[in-house]
C-alpha cells in the first residue's frame, strides 16, 4: 500500500512541475496554447518559419525516425530544404543530383486555415534541377506534416515541429 501512495505522490509532483514559459515568464497551459496559435499564424502569414523534422515516411518502405537535424525553412520567396530522401527516382542528373537538399525559389505560396486548429500551406518550389510541390499542414501547437512530390521522384512525407519565435 505504501508503494502506491509513494507512486501517487510522485506522479502528482511530476504533473504539477509541468510548466509553460513564454520569454522566461511562467504562463498557464491555456495562455501558452493561445500564444502558440498566434505565432503559427504570424509565421505562416509573414513567410518566415522553420520546421524541424523528426521522422520521414517514404512512399515505399518503412517510416524512419530522423536522428540528424533536418529542416525546412522559408524566408520570404526563398526556401531552404534540408531533407533526406528515400524512394524511386526517375531522370536523375549526373552525379545523383541534390535530392531535397537545396536553396530554391518559391513560385507559388498559398496559406489558409483548412479547419479550426489547422493551417495548410501549398508551395510550388523550383531549383535548377526540378520543380516540387510542398504541402505543409501546421496545427495550432506547431506540430507539422509535410508532403513533398515532384514528377521525377516518388512522394515522401515528414513530420516535425515549427519553431515558435
Q: Can you walk through the features of this model?
A:
It is a single chain. With 165 residues, this protein is an alpha+beta fold. The protein has 2 helices and 10 strands; from the N terminus they run αββαββββββββ. It has helices at 2-17, 29-46; strands spanning 20-22, 25-27, 48-58, 64-75, 78-83, 100-115, 118-126, 131-139, 143-150, 156-162. An 8-stranded antiparallel beta barrel has the order 3-4-5-6-7-8-9-10. It has a two-stranded antiparallel sheet with strand order 1-2. It is globular, with a radius of gyration of 20 Å.
- Computed CA radius of gyration, to the nearest angstrom: 20 Å
Approximate helicity band: 10-25%
Mean pLDDT: 87
Q: Please, how many helices? A: 2
Oligomer: single chain
Helix/strand-derived category reads: alpha+beta
The end-to-end distance, rounded to whole angstroms, is: 47 Å
Please list the strands of the largest sheet in the order they lie side by side: 3-4-5-6-7-8-9-10
Give the SSE order as H and E letters: HEEHEEEEEEEE
